[in-house]
Amino acid sequence: MKWVTKLALGLAIIGVSLTSCDKKASCYDEALYQQYKDSMCPMDCPGVIGCDGKTYCNACIARSQGISVD
Length: 70
Fold this sequence. Notes:
Layout: H1 2-27, H2 30-36, E1 48-49, E2 55-56, H3 59-63
Antiparallel strand pairs: 1-2
């Protein structure tokens, strides 16, 4: 009976991990990446937060990685 409990816990952890990955994956925009991937971004770094919750140096750098900013 113990292995059933361990299996259920393992599946629950995997489910949470996959859900969080899907949330981040939906933020990535392939079209945005294709548009900005070869851009010469300025190196000023006021800091912007992307839709994935990470901080990027500026909007150009975020967009060059396929991440939109507000």
